[in-house]
Structure formats: structure tokens, C-alpha cells
């Protein structure tokens, strides 16, 4: 089955094209074509980066702020130029979308219908940086391929749908929970993929592992996984809760919001913007939401603001992992994944330092040099520590095929 995957983020649009008929082993299939549109690169511009499994690449910059025209340009690279892998877009048999918020209604992947689109739109208020982008991606496909090609929504909330009540219910009036104000959790596609991959790499049954997965990208979250299920996670009602992130605050005392609204006349939109876009690494450092830039500012400019931002990030990550260990009553395996988790040896080693007292030890050389899809713990470590390349797109492609063939 030929499947296109769209993974829309707040500031980027990743896409991948797979021919699932080509799969020959139990390893994740590599996409024949993959593309990323990045809007953060230069003000008012979209940068499109394309690569194929045959080593062809293409880069172009467009003065396109809107997703629709950038997606159109990206699609052109599927059917023309050096990166062409299809004669015509009509060869695509199904499209899978990562949809960030599925709310209470959607606990499993579904074929997208007008009703599903209406629900994604309704839930946009809970994930304003993500759900509208998903809808634009769905519309762009309909525009080109019509409604004959099935589109499937794979929800980032689904993996956490069975959180035990003490984790899912906030200590606020209970009727709010009945109105849907509860912990949903996000990055579920990645947490679930990494849990399965960890079991595979360790040659253990997933059901016998107590896992903590650390998804550290622009958005960051932890999941505590037992019996293959998420039993706790750090993101909540929205993707703003929990760990410190690139530009999101993570958990802060809600009293701060009350104070700012009452004493400083902050509006709802001011707070939304400040907490989602201007907090986290960016807010503390005053420099950037990108961990590479934070570390460059520490190394090259001796920036004390960047150094503090880094220390808060580590402190909160260590504390979050400690909390997940308590929920799990232990830990067998710690997993690092996503942009920072996969690429940043210092974040991994600093995080692990806190758990030396448990006998968790990592091998400095493997951590620095060969971490991807490896166990970076020393042989005598009491906890396995894996770095896993998350393959959200591959997971979405498999799920899309499953839904389209049932
Ligand atoms: N090759 C790399 N080396 C170091 N850090 C990286 C690398 N690639 C990405 N990152 C870091 O990962 C973060 C972005 O993660 P990513 O998973 O790509 O985010 P998202 O999918 O949420 O957009 C940034 O802070 C960036 O600094
Ligand atoms: C849910 C979420 O935070 O996603 P991302 O990390 O892609 O922004
Ligand atoms: Mg991501």
C-alpha cells in the first residue's frame, strides 16, 4: 500500500511517503521520500527540504506563510524533479495524519469524515498550535486528491486514553472532569513506538517492562509505561503542561496566572502567547528555543541566562523522571528520543547523573559516539538506558494501513 504521512507541528510540517509492499524485515521501513517545511528559518519564508531513499535532495525557499501553498510546492517534489518518486499523486492509496488532540471522543485511529474534521476543529481550542495545522493538511489533501482517497487520523492522545483516574483527574471540582477537563497526554505515537522498539531492542516482552520514555523535541514529555500501557505522563489537558520545553513553560504555579491577570491586567491572549511561545528555554535565555543555540551561547558567549535555562531544563527533567519512577514502583528501562533526546549527549548524561544512587550508569563513550538505537548503559547498570530514533511517521503509516484494511 502506498501511503503518504503528514505530521504537522506548530512551526514545521513533516511528510513521508512509504510503499509498505517493500517491507521485508521487522525493521522500520525507511520512507521513499521525506520532506520538511520549516517556517522558523526566516521571517515570512518557508524552507522546504526534501530527500529520497535514493539519496536525492532538494531545498527551496518560498515566500509562503500559508501552509496550503507550501504544501503544494512540497507535493510537486513527489511527482517532478530529482526527488520524483511518483508519476502522479493519484498513485497515493491512503493518507495518514498525526492529529495532536483527539479529546474524549477519539481514543483510536479513525478514517477522517466530515464529523471527525468537525471534532478536530472543536478540539483546536485545546491544542491551538497543532489541531488547526492538522485541518489545513487534511484540506490540502482533499483539494488535490478529492475525497476518494481515505485519510486516517492517528491521535497523539490515544496511547494515554487509559490513564488511571488518579493520574487523569485534576484535583479541582469533579464536575470539571465530567466536562472533559482532564489529563489527556500527548506525543503518544512516539511514546508507544519507542516502548515497542525498546522491547524489541532488549529482546524482552513489552508487558514485563517498566519503562520511562523521554520525548525531548520542541515539545517535551515523559510517559511511564507498564504492561505496554501509559499509566502516567507529564503533558496534561493541553501540550503546555509538564516539562520545560523549547518555548513552552511546562508546569508553573497557576497562582502566577491569577496574579498577572489581577494585578497586571494580562489578557488571555497575552498569557497564551507568553506561555506557549515565549517561555521555556527561549523565555529564560532570551535567546532561542533551540537547544543547540542554548549550548552554543553557553560555550561561546559564556551566557549565564542560557546556562540557567539549561539547568532548569535538566532539573525539571530529573524531577519528572523521579516522579514517574514512583508511579511505576521502579524502572527497568529509560528511553531518550526526539531531537534533543536523540542528539544531545550532555542532556542524557546530566539527566542520568541524578539516578546514580540507584545504580544507573551510562557508558560515556557510547553515549557520545554511537547512541542511536543502542543501550548506552554500562553492563553493570541496574537500569537499561536506550536512545531510540523515534519513527512517528512510520508508526502512522502502519496504523493507516491497518485502519484501511480492516
Ligand atoms: N542534530 C541535532 N543535534 C542536536 N540537537 C538537535 C539536532 N536536531 C534537533 N535537535 C534539537 O531538537 C529540538 C527539536 O526537536 P524535534 O524533535 O525536531 O522537534 P519537533 O518535532 O517538536 O519540531 C531542538 O531543540 C534542536 O536543538
Ligand atoms: C504535542 C506536541 O507538543 O507536539 P510537538 O512536540 O510536535 O510540538
Ligand atoms: Mg516532534
From TrEMBL:
The active site is at 156 (proton donor/acceptor). Its cofactor is Mg(2+); Mn(2+). GO terms for cellular component: cytoplasm. Mg(2+) binds at residues 7, 392. SUPFAM superfamilies: Actin-like ATPase domain. Its EC number is 2.7.2.1. Keywords: ATP-binding, Cytoplasm, Kinase, Magnesium, Metal-binding, Nucleotide-binding, Transferase. ATP binds at residues 14, 215-219, 290-292, 339-343. It is found in: Cytoplasm. It catalyses: acetate + ATP = acetyl phosphate + ADP. The keyword Transferase applies. The record marks 187, 248 as: Transition state stabilizer. Homodimer. This is Acetate kinase. It comes from Myxacorys almedinensis A. The lineage of its organism: Bacteria, Bacillati, Cyanobacteriota, Cyanophyceae, Leptolyngbyales. The gene is ackA.
